[in-house]
Amino acid sequence: MLLGAHEGIAGGVSTAFARAEADGADCLQIFTRNARGWAAKPLEPDEVKRFQGEARRTRKPVAAHSSYLINSAAADRDLRKKSWDALADELDRCERLGIPGLIFHPGSHENAAQGLELVAEGMQRAIEKVPGKAKLLVETTAGQGSSLGWRFEEIAAIRQAIPGAARRRTGVCVDTCHLFAAGYDLTTEEGYHRTFQELDRVVGLSNVRAFHLNDSKKPLGCRVDRHEHIGQGAMGLDPFRRLVNDPRFAEIPGFVETESRFKENIEVLRGLVRR
Ligand SMILES: [Zn+2]
Ligand SMILES: [Zn+2]
């Protein structure tokens, strides 16, 4: 697995590459805009050029993570419309920057079946509005409250509701902390194999384009999303040792999303790789 982290973009998106280098990362995840507000400045053509120059210089693969405000499944029409527009805007930014995948949380809705259809509709609209290659990657969630996407069946239902041509521009991002919180036990050998067998059967491993590598502060099946430093939470090191040595994921980028200490967490993960 390629190992990286979610890097900051203070000073412009192009500055994230130098941070990834300082952290000893193989790859990086970024926001392409302010993740905590609806208002987003357009990307300046000069900054796009600098970003592409840095991508060529460092040869580090990049993924984008969408704003946390987006809820494509929102029951409220205005919020849903705003979310769908923001998703399309973020996909457009990825296309312009040459980022192959935009990771986003499916959102929440009291009625899961209705919510999943709304997510699919928002994705289809964004993909049709933004021609190109960049993919929308649905992230597996912890299932907190009425959050969607915590069961593999829900992720599959979203993708299946999108017609073929647009569906080819969708994929999945698997978050280890969220899996564990959702009740998928990666801490035992048997649980690890069962989880990925099920993911393969329901979603297809070829659709997995990225991992989020986080330990969990909270116990198995708690459905609460609290990231912990690798090996220091309820999951421990074993799940991560299995993942970084799993040949099925050798070419896939994995991003640490702890609040701090990226370099240290990447070093811990690298120390688990068998030579
Ligand atoms: Zn995540
Ligand atoms: Zn999380």
Topology record:
Layout: E1 2-6, H1 16-22, E2 27-30, H2 45-58, E3 62-65, H3 77-97, E4 101-104, H4 112-129, E5 135-139, H5 152-160, H6 164-167, E6 170-175, H7 176-181, H8 189-202, E7 208-213, E8 215-216, E9 227-228, H9 238-244, E10 253-256, H10 262-271
Parallel strand pairs: 1-2, 1-10, 2-3, 3-4, 4-5, 5-6, 6-7, 7-10
Antiparallel strand pairs: 8-9
Helix pairs in contact: 3-4, 4-5
Q: What ligands are attached or bound here?
A: zinc ion
CATH class: Alpha Beta
- Name the CATH homologous superfamily: Divalent-metal-dependent TIM barrel enzymes
Run of helices and strands: EHEHEHEHEHHEHHEEEHEH
Low-confidence stretches: none
Strand order of the largest sheet: 1-2-3-4-5-6-7-10
Structural class: alpha/beta
Radius of gyration: 18 Å
Write up this protein:
The chain is of the alpha/beta class and 275 residues long. The protein has one domain: Divalent-metal-dependent TIM barrel enzymes (TIM Barrel, Alpha-Beta Barrel), CATH 3.20.20. Helix content is 40%, strand content 15%. The protein contains ten helices and ten strands. The strands form two sheets. It has an eight-stranded parallel β-barrel with strand order 1-2-3-4-5-6-7-10. Strands 8-9 form a two-stranded antiparallel sheet. β1, α1 and β2 form a beta-alpha-beta unit. α3 packs across α4 and α4 packs across α5. The longest helix has 21 residues. The chain is globular, with a radius of gyration of 18 Å.
